[in-house]
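Q: What changes when zinc ion is included in the input?
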Amino acid sequence: MSTRRRVLILGIDGASWKIIDKVFEWGGMPYLKHLVKSGKVKRGPLHSTMPPMTPPAWTSLATGVNPGKHGVYGFHRIYKREEGFESHLMKSHDVEYPRIHEMVSLLKVPSVAINLPVTYPPWNSVCGNCVVVNDWMAPDIRIKPRELETKFRHYFIEGLEGSILKGTSRGSLKMIARRAHVFAEGVLELLNTVEWNLAFIVFSETDWAMHFNPDFVSGRNINEAFEVYNAIDKFLKEIHGSVDDIILVSDHGFTACDHLVNIPYFLKKSGLAKMGFHETLALRFGKTAIPPWLVNFVRSRPRLKALVYKIINLLGKNVSIEERKRIIPYDMAKVIMPDVGILYAAPGHEEEVLRVLKSIPEIQSILKGSETYWGPYVSGAPDYLLMPENPYCIYSKSDKPYTEENTAHHPIGMFGVLGDHLDEIWWRDLWEPWDLVPLALKLLGLPMPANTDGYYPEGLEKYNYLARWRLAKRAKIRVSRR
Ligand SMILES: [Zn+2]
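A: The predicted holo structure follows.
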């Protein structure tokens, strides 16, 4: 039995202390509230990646580096080819930097990662003694090692329709809350079954429940989203006794917006794109061409979309997630916004795109990807990142310029540490995503990463996880090709 500490990183997607304090006020999360009140939690804000988006933010949290070093800028990986933009869903092997569950595994420390974004397919993880259950934004949910699938997979596929329905109705919120409870049960059961010292668990249900739910996010109304937070509180209470340290962290916060600005509408109006990114993708799904009116009809009706999703899941294929690469010809779009706020311009059209983006009144400033991120993978970064007046009230539809009142990601997320070793750790007034890894390694008693972007005090032992991981990754690829 190992004497090494057990550290849990508990990810709560889209949460902020502001929202959690509101939940406390409403009588929710009694266990965490008690811990906070009795001074057992050290807490502060976290500034997300820019734009505050789930895949780059969680990948920066898990790697300890900015997107220029890990290469994840959104849910999609985009290349500019001669004939057009090539897009495919970001997969685990696209991540160019080890994540903490892989780092510790290099030093023979067993780890578990569950629902950490961009971990599909899980068997591509470069770690011998780790357990990985991939995230929901994938064609399927699978477990490494496969022997665990019979016993555990059902916990993680339950209620996935919630990721499409989001917080649109009381019914969908109930489904999301139920999913959070079942997911938590699966995590507990799994953590009680396998050996581990580091566990990185992400609850996405909070994010789903806050999208399209301005009543809850603005604090006007307690609704079923509240129950999602309670599911996490129950999980925290049950796991607390069997771990030494817990880091509570989110990838971004949430805000209520009077309206969201539909960027693709403006791109279409200017003649730069014939349709929005998602419409162009859906058009080319499979061998059959799906007419755009049908795609839009289904997409604009969450219940119908969830039903379609469910039927296709039953058929054994998740159609809403593109698995293969697609080409969007430049004559269809001179610019694409594959994920909210990030844009790629067709070669030679950069200036024209910039002019149109500058003409959108709610956009305060526009950053260049190559000047915002740093590292060897900056060449794959989006050309432009939008900085809206109201962060981050942007949306991706093309049929009208603005939405009704809605919610959006906010750049300020949360960071907190809970346990008996608060006197051993350093503290930041404003945490950045890459600051998590060095702190978690310190709590585990492991050396600091040699080339991290995260903060740690001078004088600590270092280790080149990146170099070791690259060697292991190369060896793994060689074996799989044999
Ligand atoms: Zn998120």
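Observations recorded in class: Residues 261-404 form one domain.
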